[in-house]
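Journal club side-thread
Mid-discussion, someone asked how the predicted structure for our own chain would compare to the paper's figures. Pasting it here so we can look after the session.
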Amino acid sequence: MATFLNIPRADRRYYVVVALAALILILSTLLSAPTNDIPLSIYNADRDGAMALREWFERSGYEIVTVSDWDQLEENAVEVLFILYPLTEFDRDEIDLLDRWLRQGHTLIVGGDPFTLNPLLEKFQLSLRALSVSASPVVVNAPTLLNPAPDRIEGIPFSEIQILADAEVAVHRSIGGNAVVVSEEVGRGRLWVVSILRSFTNLGLREAGSGSLIANLLAGVPAGAVIAFDEGSHGINDNTRSLNSWLYNTAPGLGVLSAFGLTLLFLASRGRRFGQPIPLPEHRQRRESVEYVQAIAGLFRRSGDRREVQQHYEQQLRRALAARYAVDPTLNAGELLRAVNYRSAAVDVAELRGLLIALGKQHISETELVALVARLDEFLKGLP
């Protein structure tokens, strides 16, 4: 407190304004940030979410996982899969993978909108059709749901389940002659289609008949089995549950980012440097050209490979002879000597032969190379 009071009055006002702005921004973010309101998502705690269903299963001894692609079904040894109110359609490959998994003796429970589910259900000779709101009671079609026997089921279905072709489907519940709960054996597995989605919601799970209906769907599934919920079709996957997603998509994360941004803005407005100052171009120390030449020469010297230097000076010698005596610089050593001697008898052919031999020598030492270059320079200067 004493330290704060020692700050000049103008600066104290600055600190207070920035702190109030940060507090207001964080509070507004916390109050206005949207929550997970996806219907029948196990992360949704609202009345139409399915968080209570997940907690019930966990307390009953089941292991709960979420999947965003069907490969995770095998990886997690999933016995039961819930696909509740998917927001996206399933493509042909996904449907085929799901069909193979179901036929291996697993249980699939689906319910949702006809538009997104029909491509999947048609694989099993079923489909959903929109049903007008009806207050008719749910009728028991067959005494099959007895583990335990459900009470009167509440809720209004929004679609009827149609049976295509000659599929062997058991109709368990109906309303006004329209099937609303059916099951079908698929290979060694069982498919359940339920159009009374209210029974799976946080609100509907407390109503009469919902718990017993769901218990019948899981009849025969032992405690400890893995139950999966398809959250990938709700747009939720492993990436959306990461730290990055928490920062950018949740209220506390946005509050942290806002506070960090305001802190940087405050420091910048106070003229605080965020690192070492960058010198101006005119103040930078520039290297001389000779330093680069010396660096390259040093690299050549340390490498011990002097062949390139020999080739360079041999080419220089040949170009000088070609320019002066109009000879072909690509001739071999013997032909080049004869051509130069023919053009000018005054040239020291013996010295030229010695230079060509020395320039083609293998494993020349540094001392020999320096002497050879000096010798070559003297020869070129003395050309007639």
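Post-session note: The CA atoms of residues 327 and 336 lie 7 Å apart.
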